[in-house]
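User: Run a structure prediction on this.
Assistant: Running it now.
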Amino acid sequence: MQVKIIIAVYFILVLVVGFLSYFKIKTPSDYYVSGKRAGLIPVSGSLLATILGGSAILGTIELSQKSGWAALWFLCSASLGLLVLVPLTKKVSRYGNYTLPELLGRFYGKKAEFISSLIIPIAWIGIVAAQIIAAAKILSGLGFIGYNEAAIASGVVFVLYTVAGGQISILKTDTIQSVIIVAGLFVLLVFSINTSSVHPFDSLSFSSLFNESFSFIDLVILILTYSVTFVVGPDIYSRVFCAKDEKTASRSILLVAIILIPVSFTLTWLGIFSVNNAHEGIVRFAAHLLPDWAYGLFIAALLSAVMSSADTTLLTSSIILSEMTTGNLNDKKALKYTHYFIIIIGIVSIIIALFMTSIIQTLLFALTFFSGAFVVPTLAGLLNMKVNKKRVVTAIITGGIIALTGKIVHDFYNDFAGSCIIIFTYIINALILFIPAGKK
């Protein structure tokens, strides 16, 4: 009963913050990027909370239960991506304003902006769905609600909260949520260490970082499909655009990259420990391990992770579609269209979550498609590399299709063949962009 009360209070408070923030929105800039006034703590807190979405937390635990210490690579690869982004942050901040497609439009023209505005929200629906799946698994794991009902309820809360408060409410709650996330994981870690004489760290060695479930080629694919999305990612860039200056943005990214490493160890430990001691999901395992107050904090931490990632992804996708529809986010109609798109994307994501229940698979399908399409063109633009601009749209579409094909082959037919196709994507993308056009 105590846990149910905590969850109910949590959802109510989140909605209240969202609706109160609605009255502080004076300009489109307030709604989209919090007026570009955010300091180090809100930007860092929001970035950390966004990355540690339910898909990352439950996904890492799920992976560690299957692959052991090899699951460390999941969030460590995210940290690697952020470290690569640090020196590029100034350029992202200077060239961009609201969205990644807007940035690509500045580099390559309106056609590139238009096609990216279509593709990114489609790919990001999978990310939103992954958060809803995570929330549904958390709530259904408590035993008082079914998976489908939990998916619908959490999806509705995500949508209402995002529609109401925009970026102002997201930055406020994400900072608090990041503290709750870290605190909840720390509490579970302490209790797990104190309740067993056999610790997962006993099996940690370099050789344990690769095994039958996770090979070196899997690490390469993880970097190419997941890590790179932290170098070139709409949600990551949205935090950069909210920062009050370039220095704040760079420091925030560096700080979060460092924090992710101990968090990765904590999550992997918890996954290995839970499967060794209970052979059940982390939610039910935590219920056996923790007292009521600590269990309530842990559930709040998981829901905070899901909420912070879901709202950012929903808003980012909707802003992109609104900009494509109106042509100018400062237009009075842009906010109305953004609200509509949040609702539409939310509904579609709920439907996907009702039929796909694998967090990692849903997440990586979306990110593989995105990375194959946008990593090479975006990095080329940020690094001022000379490319054939007429071929950018072709490179984006071709890269996304080939990468997605490789992922399908990898997951359902042949691991090695699928991996080779995904790697081949980047070669093809680069060839399309960098080989000069023949003279007429």
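The chain has a mean pLDDT of 82.
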